[in-house]
Write a structure and sequence with these properties.
Layout: H1 2-19, H2 23-32, H3 39-58, H4 62-78, H5 84-93, H6 98-110, E1 116-123, E2 127-132, E3 141-148, E4 151-158, E5 160-161, E6 176-183, E7 186-193, E8 199-204, E9 207-212, H7 216-225, E10 233-234, E11 246-251, H8 268-285, E12 289-292, H9 302-311, E13 316-323, E14 337-342, H10 348-357, H11 367-376, H12 382-400, E15 408-414, E16 426-433, H13 437-443, H14 446-466
Parallel strand pairs: 1-5, 11-12, 11-13, 13-16, 14-15
Antiparallel strand pairs: 1-2, 2-9, 3-4, 4-7, 6-7, 8-9, 8-10, 14-16
Helix pairs in contact: 1-3, 2-3, 2-4, 3-4, 4-5, 8-14, 12-14
């Protein structure tokens, strides 16, 4: 019985370690067990340290990487496994100024801005007013809508702290109103009702005002006339799609990384940047909040692209690329549009395409590390990413085929490293073959680019309409 309990607890302990905040501390704790472990537990410890090392690479946490490599060298010697490649990596990660770097990091952590504190909470006929000890920013607020049959909830999360118990709040038309400390740094306001809720949150310096519209006529009038609303966070009455949705557009390559070089020396990085900007314009018209990983010709590491999306708390991540045939003999035959989502590649075609896109900046991860990482991270988002990929592929075909013939290469799985680490549904769109003369010309044709961009944007709208 004891062995069964230990077997069940090990994955839970590993997940806690992998996503815990003190990554370096956890690695140090694991390394202390190296000398005292039995052979079986040493093997498990070795794999745990490998995965912690992968997490450190993705977080770009050099101190944690150094600690993990030191521990891996120790345990590799005990288990008589190859360790020379770890020693080389350690030499690269430990320059003469490593101590000063650690001090600089600790100073940055200690100088974090303190969170706003709630001073008072007041309720009126149609609103809840929360007053803080300082001005708050719209970036500190997130909106969620959780709807089911006979149960509707509007949820507002505010980066702040609450130090007192809130009395029950009652407002006509709302069954329950709860204000509580959801996490250490998050204040949550929940409106719950048996009918759809029409609410907004606006910011006035040190106040957050949650307003509830009980009059159905008023709700229709506001939606029809599109009256200005102070808040960026509204529910479906004010927009045909869920408000507050954030989309990250990632034009592939850039700067020193030109991407594929195609027909008449046309460059992938130039084509995808123009397409991404047009996609962004359509999405903004539809009511989305759009950010770009790059808006000009600069180089950005693959890991920093999804890291940026995570910081912006994006709802979806779309990486835009152009495909390339592997041989000159296939330039005329290779054509079409395809959309990928992150998963271990099964087909030779998916492996080939992902190898091209992953050729720059895949870090110091070896084959084993990559496979472990793919099999562990993003698993819960694979289904959502697959749905998003299907809707975007359909949107492109529907839009472009009105004027052009277009080959449908379908939706595929592949291990694209630009999608690794994304905490939201993430896809990669191959907009056509830049090595094919016909498709290369189209990718630099403003009218074709516009149809392509509109198709991608319509696919995003379709995804959110189906997954409210």
């Amino acid at each position: 019985m004891g062995k069964i309990v230990k077997t069940l607890l090990l994955p839970l302990i590993f997940v806690t370690l992998l996503f815990g905040s003190g990554l370096s501390n956890e690695i140090v704790k694991e390394s202390k067990l190296v000398n005292s472990s039995s052979k079986d537990s040493s093997v498990r410890l070795y794999h745990n340290l490998k995965n912690l090392y992968i997490k450190a690479i993705i977080n770009d946490d050099k101190p944690a990487q150094i600690e993990a490599i030191k521990a891996l060298i120790k345990i590799s010697k005990i288990l008589k496994l190859p360790y020379k490649h770890y020693e080389k990596e350690l030499a690269l990660l430990t320059p003469k100024r490593s101590k000063k770097i650690k001090k600089a990091v600790s100073k940055k952590v200690s100088s974090k801005v303190s969170l706003a504190r709630v001073r008072s909470i007041a309720s009126f006929k149609d609103r809840v007013v929360i007053t803080f000890n300082k001005n708050i920013d719209k970036k500190d607020i997130s909106f969620y809508e959780l709807n089911a049959k006979d149960r509707y909830r509007d949820i507002f999360d505010i980066k702040a702290k609450l130090f007192f118990k809130v009395r029950p709040i009652k407002i006509k038309g709302i069954k329950h109103i709860r204000v509580s400390q959801y996490k250490k740094d998050t204040l949550r306001v929940v409106l719950e009702s048996t009918t759809p809720i029409n609410s907004t949150l606006s910011i006035e310096r040190d106040k957050a005002i949650v307003k509830i519209y009980n009059d159905k006529k008023v709700a229709k009038r506001v939606f029809k006339k599109r009256l200005p609303i102070k808040s960026n966070y509204t529910n479906k009455y004010f927009s045909p799609i869920k408000a507050g949705r954030v989309v990250i557009l990632d034009p592939g390559h850039g700067g020193k990384d030109t991407g594929a070089i195609g027909y008449k020396r046309l460059r992938e990085k130039d084509a995808v940047l123009k397409i991404a900007k047009k996609v962004g314009k359509y999405l903004k018209k539809y009511g989305f909040k759009v950010y770009y990983t790059r808006y000009r010709d600069i180089f950005i590491k693959l890991r920093n692209r999804t890291h940026y999306a995570n910081l912006k708390k994006a709802d979806i991540f779309i990486s835009i690329h152009a495909n390339a045939a592997p041989k000159r003999s296939q330039y005329l035959l290779s054509k079409g549009v395809e959309t990928y989502f992150l998963s271990p590649a099964r087909s030779a075609r998916a492996k080939r395409v992902s190898a091209i896109e992953n050729s720059v900046d895949i870090g110091s991860m070896d084959y084993y590390s990559k496979q472990v990482f793919l099999n562990f991270l993003n698993r819960e988002k694979i289904v959502s990413s697959n749905k998003l990929a299907i809707d975007i592929q359909r949107g492109i075909l529907k839009s472009v085929r009105r004027k052009y013939s277009l080959v449908d290469d379908g939706v595929r799985k592949a291990p694209f490293w630009v999608l690794v680490g994304a905490q939201m549904p993430a896809v990669l769109v191959e907009t056509g073959y830049i090595t094919n003369p016909t498709e290369a010309k189209r990718l630099f044709n403003p009218y074709y680019e516009d149809l392509l961009a509109k198709g991608i944007a319509n696919g995003v709208v379709s995804y959110f309409e189906k997954n409210r």
